[in-house]
Every structure is written in structure tokens, then in C-alpha cells.
Amino acid sequence: MLELTAETYAWVKALHVIAVIAWMAGLLYLPRLFVYHAEAEPGSDKAETFKVMERRLLRAIMNPAMIVSVGAGLVLMAASGPALWDSLWFPFKVVAIVGLMVSHVYMGKWRRAFAEDRNTHSTKFYRAMNEVPTVLMIVIVIMVIVQPF
After folding, report:
1. CA 115, CA 29: separation in Å to the nearest integer?
2. Contact 123, 46 (CB under 8 A)
3. Dihedral sign for Cα atoms in the order 9, 13, 14, 15
4. 110, 132 in Cβ contact below 8 A?
5. Tens of pLDDT along 30-82?
6. Does a structural domain hold residue 122?
7. How far is the C-alpha of 142 from the C-alpha of 31, rounded, in Å?
């Protein structure tokens, strides 16, 4: 178990929440960019602009925010000790976080496909994928705040 002062714990928790907000913003916005990109003619100025926006969002915001979210979360988890795993809500939260990370990885793959003008998915697909992080976020917030079990 990691020993943190109450003040240090609060700072790590604040950093964690800030990073999660930034990460979620990207997870919710990138699929929306994919919807618009899928509607654009490959090679057009519009499509090329989306490529830049998608790359910058993923690399400059989403990747660092995910790393800080997970890192700070691991510190908080270590400071909370093994009793955290005795509650049923926490493993559900962890599964939902893994789901967010898997979504993130797939979004990176889709971004590369767009960058190489080889997207094969429809706007309907990206609209549906836009809902996945939302559902996972709802599960995580309920697990953390309500702790239903």
C-alpha cells in the first residue's frame, strides 16, 4: 500500500479528474470528427483538414490525458489498499476503464485508416461508436459515486 498525505492524495485525485475530463472530451469528439471525415471526399481540402484535427486531438490531448488518467488512478488505487477490491463496484469500474482504453486504441486505428485514405466504415458506424465511451462513462460514474454493490 502506498502512503500519501491527505493533501497529496487530494492533489493526485484532482489531477486524475482533470485528466479524465480531457480524455473523455477526446473520446467523445474524435468519433464525431470521423463522422464528418467519412462524409468528405478523400483528398479534398476538407478531408485533409480533418486528418490534421484528428491527429492533433489524439496525439496532443487524448494520449497524454489517458496516460495521466491511468497513472494517477493507479496511484490512488495503490494508496487505497487491497480493501478496494473487496467491494463489487470497483472491478466493474476497472472493466469499464479497460473498455475506454480499448475504444481509444480502436480510434487510433481508425484515425490511421483515415490518414491513409483507406477508411471502410460508414458515418452510421462512427455515430454508433460515438456512444460507446458515453455508456462506459455512465457506468464508471455510477460505480464511483453510487457504489451500488
Report:
1. 17
2. no
3. positive
4. no
5. 999 999 999 999 999 999 999 999 999 999 999 999 999 999 999 999 999 88
6. yes
7. 24
Give a yes or no: residue 17 inside a domain: yes
For residue 1, being part of any structural domain is answered with no
Single pTM value for the model: 0.94
C-alpha cell at 44: 479534398
Secondary structure of the chain as H, E, C letters: CCCCCHHHHHHHHHHHHHHHHHHHHHHHHHHHHHHHHHHCCCCCHHHHHHHHHHHHHHHHHHHHHHHHHHHHHHHHHHHHCHHHHHCCHHHHHHHHHHHHHHHHHHHHHHHHHHHCCCCCCCHHHHHHHCHHHHHHHHHHHHHHHCCCC
By residue count, the chain amounts to 149
In a domain, 13, yes or no: yes
Residue 10: give the domain boundaries: 6-145
Domain count, the chain: 1
